[in-house]
């Protein structure tokens, strides 16, 4: 075989192998630092997993943020982890007849690989979408980090982005004593400027499934997210195993490097484009090419709706990804790449499901298999068996067991949005919009084409037994955003208020059932009642402060426009523009804090609410009433009194007239009875049902500034967020190196000091001349 042909074959083999196997990095060196055993992981470009093996006190790695194009193979130069991109990359497309990747550009990355010029595998995403994306180490999702419980993660984040700053939030990590490591730019730290490095260091005290993502702008929605798994230590493993055994659940295999599933929605244009269309109300035009100027005759996009009649799709669905791969609906199977998860028949496996999406909730299922849900947001729960669907919202995590007892074959893994054809006055069921993507569950020894696996996909999809819930036994869905599906769908919901913890919360960590006092009872209504009907909490549209309060508290106090719940923020008409401010609440140390988060008012949406720095107990979920004919929301939950007399026109497109705003919520009289126990479920992200509320309690034992917000990206950026200042007199001071970011604010006195003063210059010249004459005189004397 000629050498040139051989090189091309080697390249194609590399392109196939890297997406059907796990490309991982483990400890490349071991150091003893201050008596602690440190694993240094050379986590480089293209690595899908960066793992510190069991037994290390510290786990150190480096990841580089950069923007790249999908479908492009980049030449990577240098030595891990400080690689730079060369200029010999190429673009590939996937042939729609053979499925083979075809290079578009005749360059080094077309046909040449050796130790000095390594070309990384392209991010194939949905087989369709060629655009700029944001990554850590060049992969979507970013590498899954695996570390031990009680170990310290030392993560050096290099900002290789061309134009913008970044920051990395470690979602679900409570950051006890390290609030300035939470990773929220302009809140807990100075954002990481281009060409600079920020080192995050924190302890993984609580084991479980977590994730990390950019918390700057819209970078998360374009690919900058990944999983972080904190392995249970031996003590925790024993405690969990004994608790499961007492409930009839036996041993299971746990391979987080192989069975961590990160799901995300994926949009046609970059997320900053979508935000700049949605926020100002410029409308989407799905029938014309992206970046083409619309005409008045073009059809505008209308939001889609869920099974409860609530709005779910303010931006049009394009595609979705499972571990960075999927298939846009117009792409033939042969021209796609799907993620693959391997099992052996007869074993029970733990899978970890991470919701990294920016907008849509997904219904997750595996054809031919029932699931057992065992954990949410890193806390084990009493097992929920015979589950057909897990509904996962942005920010949430669910762990489940898969019993591999099906016939040896290949099965489709599905994620599907909750969008359905809306019809306010008809009877359910309504057809799904069929917005979904797929992955493969592969039983070892089942047939699969390992040359170009996409040649098998269509056959697998056609022969995979999809569950029909309207025929035979009813299906079971965990974590619905509404009380239940309409009975016609054949699906019953088991929601978070039905969960029970597997391991009891220690008494010293358990809050009371009610807030310590009225100063620690808060009502937050999530709706679109800020300026211009923008995302807000209690009508207050959150804006980031000019100084991050966690590291520059004095400047934050001097220059930030802070507001609280005592101001009138009714958007119309008394205060036309609502309140645009850094919305903040203050809490004292060692109190029971109770937050009643609602989604009531004129607009009907559910919202995934995330609170940084804490997990919280979910005491109660209050649902609205629903129409018998179709399951749509009828009346919002009466437990919440919005205390508003202002009525506005109904929102166009909603089934039920809603004219009341809700910017000053409180309990109605009487308020509901609340209970808490050591088994009450704990989460850090929870779905707030449209027209309803959730009661969250936690102990204020973690001093710092903590961000709380809707985890739908567009809602949070619009202003559906709030800042918690906790125990201000007990903050752990930030290291001096973290307090250096600043703003230059015009000051006339300072400006005058910079002005050129001719008289001052003349005085300086005379002084210098006098000094020289004096020196000359001294020389003459001596």
Automatic annotation (TrEMBL):
<dbReference type="InterPro" id="IPR011706">
    <property type="entry name" value="Cu-oxidase_C"/>
</dbReference>
<dbReference type="Pfam" id="PF07731">
    <property type="entry name" value="Cu-oxidase_2"/>
</dbReference>
<feature type="domain" description="Plastocyanin-like">
    <location>
        <begin position="314"/>
        <end position="445"/>
    </location>
</feature>
<dbReference type="InterPro" id="IPR001117">
    <property type="entry name" value="Cu-oxidase_2nd"/>
</dbReference>
<keyword id="KW-0186">Copper</keyword>
<feature type="domain" description="Plastocyanin-like">
    <location>
        <begin position="126"/>
        <end position="234"/>
    </location>
</feature>
<feature type="domain" description="Plastocyanin-like">
    <location>
        <begin position="546"/>
        <end position="727"/>
    </location>
</feature>
<keyword id="KW-0560">Oxidoreductase</keyword>
<protein>
    <submittedName>
        <fullName>L-ascorbate oxidase-like</fullName>
    </submittedName>
</protein>
<dbReference type="GO" id="GO:0005507">
    <property type="term" value="F:copper ion binding"/>
</dbReference>
<dbReference type="GO" id="GO:0006826">
    <property type="term" value="P:iron ion transport"/>
</dbReference>
<dbReference type="InterPro" id="IPR008972">
    <property type="entry name" value="Cupredoxin"/>
</dbReference>
<keyword id="KW-0479">Metal-binding</keyword>
<dbReference type="GO" id="GO:0016491">
    <property type="term" value="F:oxidoreductase activity"/>
</dbReference>
<dbReference type="InterPro" id="IPR002355">
    <property type="entry name" value="Cu_oxidase_Cu_BS"/>
</dbReference>
<dbReference type="InterPro" id="IPR033138">
    <property type="entry name" value="Cu_oxidase_CS"/>
</dbReference>
<comment type="similarity">
    <text>Belongs to the multicopper oxidase family.</text>
</comment>
<dbReference type="InterPro" id="IPR011707">
    <property type="entry name" value="Cu-oxidase-like_N"/>
</dbReference>
<dbReference type="GO" id="GO:0005886">
    <property type="term" value="C:plasma membrane"/>
</dbReference>
<dbReference type="Pfam" id="PF00394">
    <property type="entry name" value="Cu-oxidase"/>
</dbReference>
<dbReference type="InterPro" id="IPR045087">
    <property type="entry name" value="Cu-oxidase_fam"/>
</dbReference>
<feature type="signal peptide">
    <location>
        <begin position="1"/>
        <end position="25"/>
    </location>
</feature>
<dbReference type="Pfam" id="PF07732">
    <property type="entry name" value="Cu-oxidase_3"/>
</dbReference>
<keyword id="KW-0732">Signal</keyword>
